[in-house]
Amino acid sequence: RCDLYFTEFKNGNWTPVRNLGRPVNSAAYESLPSLSAEGDALYFTSNRKGGFGGLDLWVSYRKPDGHWGEPVNLGSTINTPFDEQAPFIHPDGQTLYFMSKGHRGMGAYDLFLSRKDEKGNWSSPENLGYPINSRGNEGALTVSLDGKTAFYASDMPGGFGKNDIYY
Question: Which residues are paired to 14 by β-bridges?
Answer without folding.
Answer: 9
